[in-house]
## 1
Amino acid sequence: MDFPMFHLDWLNDRFLIAVIAIIHVMINHGLAVGFIPYITWLEYKGVKNAPPDQITDNKWDNLIYNKMKVAFIITTTIGAMTGVGIWFSVALVSPSSIGSLIRVFYWAWFTEWVVFVTEVVLIMIYYLTWKNSNKSLNAKLKHIRFGAFLSIASWITMVIIVSILGFMMDPGNWNTDKSLLNGFTNPIYLPQLAFRTPVAMLVGGVFGMLLTTIFSRKDSEIRTKAIKYAGRWVLLWTPFAIAGAIFYWNVMPEAMKANMSTAVGSMDFEQYYDLLKYFIVGAASLSIILAIWALAKPKKVNFAVVVLPCLFVFGFLGIFERVREFVRKPYVIGNYMYSNLLREEDYPLYKKDGILKHATYASVHEITPENKVMAGRDVFILTCSRCHTTNGINSIIDVFENMYGKGKPLNEQAMATYIPAMHQGRAFMPPFPGNKKELEALVAYIKQLQESGESLQGAQSAGVAINPLNAVDEVAKGLEAEAAQNKDNETTK
Amino acid sequence: MLLQINTPVPKDIPLDLPLPEWLLVTLLIVSFLFHIIFINLMVGGSIITLWAQIKGLKNKQYDLFAYEIAKTITVNKSIAVVLGVAPLLSINTLYTVYFYSANALTGFAWIMIIPLVTIAFLLTYLHKYSWTVMSKHRGIHIGIIALSVLIFLFIPLIFLTNVNLMMFPEKWGTVKGFLSALVLPNVFPRYFEFLGACIAVTGIFIVWYNGRKNYPFEDIYYTFTRAQIKRIGYHIALIGLAAQIVFGSIVLMTLPAKGVSFEVIEIMGVAGGLLVLALWWIWKTIKDTDERLDKHFWKIAIAILAFMVCYGGSRQMYRHNALDKHQRMMASHTASFQAMSKEARESPVEEEMDLVIDESLGDLAKGTALFQASCAGCHQLDQQLVGPPIKEMKQIYEGDEEKLIAWIKAPGKKRQELMQMPGFPQIPDEDLKEIAKYILSVE
């Protein structure tokens, strides 16, 4: 309503955020939170198993250092930039929701940032001082202790961010007390942490094993040893990962139901949710097989053996994130703002006046037969475009053709009957906010879209049309009139 | 055709700022200062590395020098990125509508920052870690850093375009994409001033970096002396400062009048004076003997830092002036919208989903209307639409209203070829009865 609408008409706006966020989560969990404790543990093993006259087993230490180097490079480039990228993409796609969240959670994010800065500084010190610390045993032990600190700092970032995530999922509390504490106490917080922690460790271990197969020579002694250690690590964390996943999986439907107006979950959720079950079983058994294989036949483990489980456990993280996103619907902020970025409290006003009148950016504010399709396009941008495209992923045409038949001409009358009631049947959809004329304009636009196959440009290329009702002239007039009326009221009193 | 200037007045996020405005502004300026220093070192460092490496093709000592600087870029860039998050948070909070609007209007370029910077970062690592491996292929190796320099030179333009565009809501209606926002007044002068700062700060950094006692300078270089490198650093800073003074003056002269006030000019003037002072001390240092190269160092560094504080402060004042009236208007507009919204909430228009009751239908009137509102999007009289036609329902449930109602509340899946119907438990029982009555009545 109040922001120019960035829109990706093929890729889908949500998809942009999802891709960036999921890459970030994978790197954060698998290459930082779960990886650094694993590396520290191996570095320590190097000292423990060192030949009597040496500080550490140098060949071993070099292998671990190389693994750390990969994680260091990836976390400080792709990892750091996708973290910032979540901000950038959410600001583009969902400005009203992030703008609201940041006003309430400024301190939470500020704290997160302080921890994050600490983490980056520690990770740089840990990595950059590695070689120098090999000069004395004391320095080496200090370095290992440092790695332990770093592991804790990374885990703390997770503890905080999961709470922010949890808050957004938790319905109701936004309207009551808007406090971050709710993020920690909400029913999905502990399950999420219980899931993310061991899975991060698991992913870290599998990724570490993959790196071992890259950085060590086949049949070398350290390779066998490193693979066995990775096997032990993975085997240790897998039961916790399974337990965490089941815990989390079990609370998901409750969390989702709490947001939706009906007691019945959406079918799309069910589908993903079912898939998740197979992913839990699949990822768990793959990890166990890999771990046992690594322990029993370490010489037979090579890149090809590890790469598939590695992709699978990363995918495991990704799919949970996808389902978690579902839990939020139809809201973006529980019981406060719908996923179309309109606040629930403003719906009665939109019902009364229509949304176009209150939109800052719209090419039409008074619908006539001549401008109906144009108006429909404005309505589409304002109320549908955050999740739907015209021709691409999750396109509005596909959605309706799935219902009414592929390739069959869409019926405006049927769509106009369906849309105002859709939130009842499709609980993940927000209610349509506009008035009757806007609804008719919208279906006329959708019909034209189906016929023409035209695409829709976002504000980043087409710019914005400013609604004169919400431009300086009119707003000033309105405010003056309001002030005059207030004065009148006072004098009559 | 633009007959009138059409300045949008959006509604603000109707939530209070998390902190008093002055505190947020302070946090913004201070955190931005730290961020920009490391950005300067990252951009300036990569430019100097490129220059030194090219010079190193003829003189091996410069190649060593380039390597030493290259090693600092990867560290400084990591700090630059994490330190950027705090000012980003603060500006998002303080200027939510303005900043996000500018972001969306230049959205493609804005989001490209993420992959571009990632690539530039990866290139700096590749460049650093392939130094010895690629010693036989210096041309390609220099190409790697040259590519990341190009990216580093481009990214600031996107940021500057955004922080510039956010101050001019009157331009938002005319902007079509990044390029048209890029050519708005004042972007380029600010950009070149910024590049000057990158060079100047990096020059000073080189002097400091090579003067540190625990830096094993003598193990690294075999002909360069500390004094020589310090002189290189001072010369670099001299060039940067001169560029800053030239382009800073152009910035001052081309500032759009909207946010200019005497205070802004005064503080920018003071800032300029500090630069001239730093330039003078550097000049004196260069003219002096090797032993006295550190004499003015801290004065120079502090003058440049003080310049940054003044310049950042004056930019914030300018931004404040430029947006002040618009912000007030937006606040009033937001308040009046909220009042309207409250009124509508308290006396809502008939919700009833526009039930069109046709009284002539008598007993079936309500059921027909309810069916039209909730079911007709998927079910028609005698044709399959999304779900089966009403006539088929009648055949199945003839005389068994209870079962029909139970199905509507919690449907199963009978027809493999069709979508499964969602349940409608939220429809009250008496309405369901009416609907069922209608369904079972069709001919």
Note: Chain B has three domains: 19-184, 185-337, 353-439.
## 2
Amino acid sequence: MDAEDIELSDDEEEITAESVLKTLQNAWQNERLAPEILPHHNDMVECMLGQIQHMERNINKLPKTDLRSCIHKMELNRIKYIICNYLKTRLGKIEKYCIAIVNEEKQRIEAGTNYLTPSEFRYAQEYITNMESHLKNTILNHVPGNMQSFELNKMAIYPNFYCHVFLKANETINGIILEDLLGDQDEEIDIEEDSQHILQYKPIADLVKNGKVQLV
Amino acid sequence: MDPFEIEFIGENRIVSIIPNFSHDKIYLICGEFGPFRAGLPMNVPLWLAVMLKQKQKCRIVPPDWMDMEVLENIKEEEKRSRFFTKMPHEHYMVEAKLLLGAAAEDIPRASEVKTIIKDIWDIRMSKLRTSMDALMKSGGSYGRLDHLTMMEINSVKPLLPQAMDELHKIKMMTRTSASATLNNSTFTQSGSSQNI
């Protein structure tokens, strides 16, 4: 009887808090493991924060000794950890690759495919401004005039797209092309659903972004 | 990722407990669980099971696979096969560690179970080291790793991916210098783009 109930609820494709949490957890995992910054999942974060607030209000109504209250608190702490760590990971990448990210993001904003949330973008821009003025105040302003020029783009650090990552395929994907550096025989591979691989990030970057593979 | 983060992810796995109290269904964000009926088995996420166990509010029902006979078979199979065999599930090690740590008294022959799981882990890790070695020696930039669990994959980070990254750099340099001998003018171009 129980099994039937579960099957029924699985068939309904509605967006539940449960599925949002699952998506968010996968996004967190991908963000932790991908070398570059990934498109943001702000809607998921906002939705989850709303759920947390709602839940916290309900917990406050419960008596302190109620078993439910500590179970709920534990769950909320777990979710908060995922959200915090997700946002922190993104900020870490934004700081590290700030110049590259802001340059690319400007083009993406024009195309309407921005990866950063508006506040993350503002953070990135301010970070660069602060870094620039810091470097000018501490060093550049005190060296001879001909050495004072500040070339921002020369300082850019880029994520390494050639690094190797582990992944699990969410669906079967055919024809991923692996570049052969020494010979000129590029190799083409197919990956089956649920299979796991280690390969270069570059050829699968788009598959991570559209959710066809999960980094592990 | 840190091992504790893999553990954190593994803690979402559903396990069976027998509560010693009764309570209505509880509606968590990750799903609804219950109703709790004293003495009747029910499913909860691993983190909740461990928490209730620590509060002495439940007994753990040992998972089907945490049984000496099953584990003996897995161990034999793992020894026999050249490849990695399929484990009971993705987070077998996390489940074993947490349940044996928090609820050893609920699991029959717990210390034997612990030893045999450790044996299986060791066999797999030694296989993993051998295949990593083979992969590097073949100069590969791609590998397939079916049936490896997340914790096992994580244990070879960052060593394996970084070794492959270095190999890639060496190949890039070989290619650059090869084309440089062919044509001196390309040397400066590709040489500067190499400067990471």
Note: The domain at 97-159 of chain A is CATH 1.20.58.1030 (Methane Monooxygenase Hydroxylase; Chain G, domain 1).
## 3
Amino acid sequence: MVTYTDWLNLDAAEIALARSLDRGERVKLARWEAMRSACRPVQTD
Amino acid sequence: MADPVRVAVVGSGPAGLYAAEALVKQTGDTVRVDVFDRLPTPYGLVRYGVAPDHKSIKSIARYLQRVLENPAVRFLGCVELGRDVSRADLLDCYDAVIYSTGAMVDRQLGIPGEDLPGSVAATDFVNWYCGHPDAADHDFDLSVEEVAVIGVGNVAVDVVRILAKTVEELRETDIPEHVLDALSRSRVRRVHMVGRRGPAQAKFTTKEARELGELPNAGIHVRPEDMELDPASAEAAENDRHVRGNLKVLSGWTAEPPAGRARRVDVRFWRAPVEIVGTGAVEGLRLERTALDENGRVTGTGEYETLPVGMVLRSVGYQSVPLDGVPFDERSYVVPNDGGRVLGKDGAPVPASTSPDGSSAARPASSAPTSPTPPRPSATCWRTSTPPASGRPVPSRTCSNRAACPWSPTPTG
């Protein structure tokens, strides 16, 4: 199950992707696996 | 405080979220709404239907986000009705269920050749360029030089525009990277948009049409003879602002477009598709010239032509699909309802029941809302025989199975 907080993580990942590609405000993640991973990113200190 | 009323909304598109908002506004602190979606992302058609280059419409998501941030509303993604949760589960744990899953599949043309490779439902193409995960691996043959789009609604215009734009024009949009890459290799040079009826009956909005005519890298043309109006159309042009606006835009496209444009769009009215031709794949689209008969109905004239296209995108309307365990009218493709309240086979309201909202209860619509004006849910149905008056709670039924619910229903507080 994906919560609203998980979705916000995905949302942030799409915004970060756009920045890294120098492409507008957002670039969508379209593959299930990438979306699931972005929902619950691995925490790195 | 008494238990709040629990409502499940199935589908987190605009209709579902506006329904959730309406519930919270009407009942204040006495309601808890769980919004389910089978995808990990909310906003439905706003995310997967609005064209990526329509940023102002997509900004509706910011409004909808406020609904999800209301403490009385929860988003529960990746939960699919019929797979992860049954209708019986929902009825066991919620006081009301609202279905807002929209119209998800294209209508068929019903002509020979429709199943050939290269004959594509417009929704599949839209889902692909909008980044829907179910369409991520779709493979569209963009090595062809000519494409036909059947239909003259806003979705058809969106598809034409995406095909006609250069990749530089799309780069600043949210199109997934692999889609942008595929579009960068497109060899499509000519797109035909085909309508069975005349210009006065075109469904696209004037704003969308105008935008199509303003593409810097694509010329657009409509044959002057296609613009001739029958008396009924002429009357509509006089009395209907939408028709008048469309005709004004279309009339500006009757001159040959300037040379040197990378791509060309031909809008063809009074042409009915009769066959998608090809051996093993689409090689052409056979059209019959149409006219209105004495009763104002479209009829074939016996005059044919074949467009040499390598792909056909069908955009002639959309229909809902049945939801697991929910009544469905196979003839009209809607959840049978009376003012929104779900009806069973006997025509009586389904007890302890469910409510389709404005999308699956109404006839399917092909366009997303273009302003933050909420689509009013057609009804809300409750466990009790009478819906509660605004602001007044209804008693919540005790859920026999609440502890076992996999989505952990909202605590009563």
Note: Residues 217 and 268 of chain B are 20 Å apart (CA to CA).
## 4
Amino acid sequence: MEKKVYMDYAATTPLDEKVFADMMPYFSEKYGNPSSIHSFGEDAQEGIIKARKIVADFFGAKDSEIIFTSGATEGNNAVIKGIVMSRKIWEACGGKPHIVVSDVEHDCVLESAKRVMKDGLAEVSFAPVGSDGRVSADDVQKLIQPNTVLVSVMYANNETGAIQPVQEIGRMITRENEAGNKKIYFHIDAAQAVNYLDCNADALGADLITISAHKIYGPKGVGALYARTGTPLAKFMDGGEQEFGLRAGTHNVPGIVGLGSAIAQLENYKEKNKEIGRLRDRLIDGILASVSRSALNGSRENRLPNNVNMRFEGAEGEAILIMLKDKGVAVSTGSACAAKSLSSSHVLKSMGLTDLDAHSSIRFSLGRQTAQEDIDYVISAVPGIIEKLRGVSGSFDHSTNLSQADEKGSKEEGSVFFG
Amino acid sequence: MYSKEVMDHFQNPRNMGVLNDFQAVGNVGNPVCGDMMKIYLKISDGIIEDIGFETLGCVAAIATSSMITELAKGKTLEEAEKIEFKDVEKALGSLPPVKLHCADLSVQALRKAIGEYRNTNS
């Protein structure tokens, strides 16, 4: 069979076998509705209680502070919208609240923030990042206003793996709260961090943390929201009283059990994570050594051990991705060009990359099944691909003065419009 | 995501590269979407005798530039000017809607090269 190498663990991970086994009984054996009070319901409820305990322990939290969701996107929507829609919040700040999010947040945070701004529910400020893709606590602090109620900064970036100084931001917010006798809530989107970093809520100074199971070798469609006791959140799904009255809807029992199991497995992979870090460095060094005019986006320091995001001058990300696909290698572009949007990655551009540099970027993300021979296979495949694409791009390089080209090329007579 | 024809032109681009003795070049680019194209022309008796391209861009940008060089080669300037993005799309089987602008970009590059030839040879 043709060689296949999966290097897109930041997109999603395969389900852990043990997790799968733990989930199995909850499909057709313990199928009761956990809200039912008969024995079938109790069997299902037992699985949820166990999972909630595991997740709570992971955050150093109480069981009642864990709300199961469909994933980090739902959790992040629930946090951003739920805070600014909370009556308590409006009363406390005597009018429209203000929130701060970083420029490099996942779209589900950025779009939620833009939504509440558009709907007149909140003012929003965006914290910049440096060339290493990291937010600074100072920059966040400068954006804080008297009506600021929420700061949302991710733990680690999904595109660049940049680990944000969330502990520092947490401490800064605690000081602000103490000095001003007020309460700014701190939310951390930890979706990419759970595999590798400590998520104790007190150590992070976090009031809200969101995670997804499918990033940690658990099932898709389930996640959790940690909400510190007393955090005002508007109910985000109306219906029944499930999840402490915040999120109505019959529980995804197998999924929730799978999330708990996935978190329970994490501690078995501490050594493996170190090896992943070594493989990451081997990949970065191997590509830098074999491909001229290539560069790592972001720094190696404060980077998740599984993330490699590189740019290749004279080649475009999607073209590289499709050529790697032909060689059995699965990666992602830094650009969203391959998907619905044509604009380049907002994360890379926030770091100061030009459009062309951002468009020439590729994300390799490693995981538990990544072997050294996979790394070496990729290192051997990349130079030929870049060479071929540079043959096609010929005289274009990234110093090409775009004013020489007709920038309006497609727009000028672009009355041809494409719906 | 891409048709067989698109993949074929992406993997085996036709008329790739700069022409040694080109008479005109059309250089267009859309940095926001990351695609840059140059089309080189060699004209003889009003006919596109030879054509070449250089493209920095996505799969669709490379495939549409390759395809438009095939469509234009051997045609008169008047005929080549009439090539529309729909012709390029059709010749490639299909393009994802979000990539139609690549076909348009290739048309603009060709027309710009023809315009440049006319400006310098009239």
Note: DSSP finds five helices and three strands in chain B.
